[in-house]
Amino acid sequence: MASETLHAAQHVMAQAVREAYARGEEDEALEPLALVNRDSKPVGRIRDGDYAIFYNIRGEREVELTSSFVDPHFNEFPIEKEIRAHFATMIQYDENLDVRVAFPPLREIDHTLSQVISDHGLRQVKITESEKAIHLQFFLNGKMDQALPGEERIVVPSPRVTDYTRVPEMNIAGVAGAVLEKLADPACDVIVANFVNVDVVGHIENHDAIIRAVETVDAHIGRVVEAAQKAGVTTVVTADHGIVEKWLYPDGAIDTGHTDSHVPFFLISPDPLSLRDGGALTDVAPTVLELLGLPKPDVMTGRSLLQDASTSTGDRRRVLLLVVDGWGYREETHGNLIARARTPVMDRLQEDHPFTTLKAAGKAVGMPEGTVGNSEAGHLHLGAGRIIYSDRLRIEEAIENGAFFENEAFLWAMRGAKRDNTRLHLLGYRLLLQLPRVRGPSPGAAPDGQT
After folding, report:
1. Strand 100-103 and strand 124-129: pairing?
2. Residue ranges, CATH 3.40.720.10, the chain
3. What's the Cα-to-Cα distance from 169 to each of 172, 223, 272, 429, rounded to whole Å?
4. pTM more than 0.85
5. Domain 2-105+401-427: what homologous superfamily?
6. Model confidence over 232-267: pLDDT tens digits?
7. Is the dihedral of CA 442, 391, 298, 122 positive or negative?
8. What fold is seen in the domain 113-387?
């Protein structure tokens, strides 16, 4: 009976989502939906004292959502202050959250690109929009929150809208403007910037908005590259993963997800340098360090993309690393919105400067073979210079060997709900795991009628 009720509820919610799509709502701006009973009361709402397992394996919006239930001082949006819940999270979303973590971080990722730059007394600045600041600051730094000595962080506010198709330009002008200011400062040795538009807008089914985003990014790449050339700064342009270069499934349906495509890598240098092929995102950090004249740490297993090391010796360069978020590379033009857009700047860079493509998905970024890339893994590997095995791989391995079903964080939540005669919730908005039909140890059933 409970199973039939659950399936019925799933059917109702699935239909509600379909109706929202029919109204023109998109995944990135879907209005909240709540399942209610015959008395119009919400079903399954988290109550004070309940337990929840938050199964997402990202660390972005999960931080704020979890904080709203476990932090008594939370004030980012209106909540019912009297509701405090007990949370177990799949991974560590933030070290300051009062939760049980099922798969805590193994260790700090040290000797990253940012850390080596800092250790050698160079000044670096990271510039991006608020919509994706965590990627350029936290993940690029090896999952370290605090800025390093000599590191400046500039976060340009993104437009406060619910639908970025209305402003696919976002605030790229502000990001580019900040980059231009730092290029004019000779004391700034390394500038790392992120143009976020293609990834953010690419998740929405709006062809025209995506084209505008791609063309806007292309134009601003031209602005900053031109300024860097005038300032004598060596520029690296690359991406963290792809998205809109594969906008269609084979059957013609629209695919707004990330892709397994390679990403472009351009080198715009005052010196006559050349690039090797066959690289991956892990090779970017060693390349930047070589351009800066800094030694590569032994833990960086990535290799510099510079073809001939002897051509890179000499005076230390200033370097601009520009990450064009979501700009995948694919020669096939069918369903390729980057190829369909007008991109004179990127076209010219490919013709006039050293160019190659990099692996940005699957095992190359610590993910299972055949999986697509993402911003978290992309930035993590851009900065780490070596493969960092993902939380997803650790979780899948735990499922295979059975340890997943004996995880203390999960058992704590289940046993707590049983002991306190309250409810256990499974919380998530991206189901990234497919659990096999395996029965784990039973910690005891929930109270009657509760799930």
Report:
1. unpaired
2. 113-387
3. 6, 15, 34, 27
4. no
5. BPG-independent phosphoglycerate mutase, domain B (3.40.1450.10)
6. 999 999 999 999 999 998 888 999 999 999 999 999
7. negative
8. Alkaline Phosphatase, subunit A (3.40.720)
